[in-house]
Amino acid sequence: MNAIFKRTSVRKYTDQPVEPEKIELLLRAAMAAPSACNQQPWEFYLTDSKEKLIALGGCSRYATPTIGAPLAIVPCYRKNDLIAPDYAEIDLSACVENILLEVEELGLGAVWMGIAPGRDRMENVRKVLGVDDSLEPFAIISVGYPAVENKQQNRFDTTRIHWVK
User: Fold this and answer.
1) Please, which pLDDT band fits residue 1 given cuts at 50, 70 and 90?
2) C-alpha span between 145 and 16 (Å, rounded)
3) pLDDT at res. 123
4) Is residue 59 part of a domain?
5) How far is the C-alpha of 106 from the C-alpha of 86, rounded, in Å?
6) Would you give the distance in Å from CA 31 to the centre of its chain?
7) Which domain holds residue 41?
């Protein structure tokens, strides 16, 4: 899998919309993520509305890439009836990583903007998208065709590897 070694955070996009079939593949990748006790706590809010994208960009000082993106995906997790509720955010992290890897495979670009666990940011997103009270907004992922090409940094560092025998 080369996507893992090519993926970068993309914050600037062309105006080209993301095709519906690619959006479906992103969501299929998201829902293929592992989750604790197979609880699959995820729900997804999507928008391509310029008004909503601009509003999402104001939900956090880090969320401005949504302003110029053609699409935002907001993964949320259920708060109720979970087998392992303490692992819902971990499950969503795996879900978001799957989206980011599929973005690379599809020739798109994206950036993961953290929302949880910041209550103010979570509530801002909830208000903009009308997220149901039974759900918690986890992240904003802006998605589109990259306006610039980024190269991934080499982050491999042998000093962080510790063999225990």
Assistant:
1) low
2) 7
3) 98
4) yes
5) 32
6) 12
7) 20-148
pLDDT digits (tens, 9 = 90+) for 75-90: 999 999 999 999 999 9
SS3 labels along 44-87: EEEECCHHHHHHHHCCCCCCHHHHHCCEEEEEEEECCCCCCHHH
How far apart, in Å, are the Cα atoms of 77 and each of 39, 89, 99, 127? 10, 7, 15, 16
Residue with tokens 């829902």: 31
Which of 31-40, 64-73, 154-163 shows the lowest per-residue confidence on average (mean pLDDT)?
154-163
Cβ neighbours for 94, distance < 8 A, ≥ 6 positions apart = 33, 34, 35
Pairwise CA distance, residues 114 & 19, whole Å: 25
> Which amino acid is it at 56?
L
Number of domains in the chain: 1
Whole-number pLDDT of residue 152? 83
Overall average pLDDT of the 134-145 stretch: 98
CA distances from 52 to 40, 56, 104, 126, 144 (A): 27, 6, 25, 12, 15
12 in any annotated domain? no
Domain-embedded: residue 3: no
Q: What is the pTM of this model?
A: 0.94
What is the CATH classification number for the domain harbouring 116?
3.40.109.10
